[in-house]
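so my prof wants the structure for this chain in the tokens format not the other one, which i didnt know existed until like an hour ago. anyway here's the sequence
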Amino acid sequence: MNRRRLKEQKRFIFAAIAPSGILLLVFSYFSLGYCIYVSLLKWNMLSSAKYIGMKNYAQLFVNPSFWNSLRVTLVYSLVSVPSCIILGLFVGLILKYAKVWRSFFRVMFFIPVIISMVVASLIWKWIFNPTQGILNYVLVHIGIFGGQELNHWLKWYNDPNGGALAALLVVGIWKRIGYNGVIFLAGLLNIEQQYYEAAEIEGASSFKQFWHITFPLLSPTTFFVLTMEIISALKVSVSPLVLTNGGPVESTNSLVLYIYKEAFENFRMGYASALAVIVFIFILIITVLQMQTTEKKVFYK
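here's what i got, hopefully its the right format
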């Protein structure tokens, strides 16, 4: 009887995980294997494919556009990841301790999360418009810059010398901090109040309570947010596509956007697949290194 029940349980478990397992197999492992196979071909999706071996990879590493897109992605990540974590933690603290308009803050901070990145990019594209955008209009009328000087310096997404990348960073950070704030809020609510009561008895200031209690006990949450932010930053593509289309002068041409252009604009599917394999390996290495170095510092209760 026990054996029969055990078999039934195994069948039920297999039936329950089979749909997800099939989807994972088809859309992850099979897709990855097929991508590696296509990276060894010269194929424009219109004619027959030709096997060329590792030539796509050799061409990739001598292409200045690849190194430029790698630089753009790294700069974006180095600014975006810490900004999203710090501001997300600040939002989480506001959502927990705000005594007035708490529900209003929760809604306002989470609205950007539920908006699609395409819509968010279009909204900010209008805000950053150098001649008709509301941001430059406000800056002119509050007297920070004169009109001529403003048009010369604040070109935003039309500026290849950092302005366009700064505009992308604003969009990405604005979109992510609400989600991080909710995650940090969950972590903050999970900290037992008795720690703070003991600290108050000992006369610890609010800063010392945060530094010695809140921050260490938030380490699992911070670790999760850090991992997700690194992966998200390295995969940025929608906002540069909508806001700048990788320009001006490829100053916002991220790695994933570079893959998209090579595959669906230049129809170099083999070269784009080689790019995708390199990006996958790059993200995998960074994630593993980050987990090995950061997870050791995570405090588990």
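also thought this was worth mentioning. The mean pLDDT is 85.
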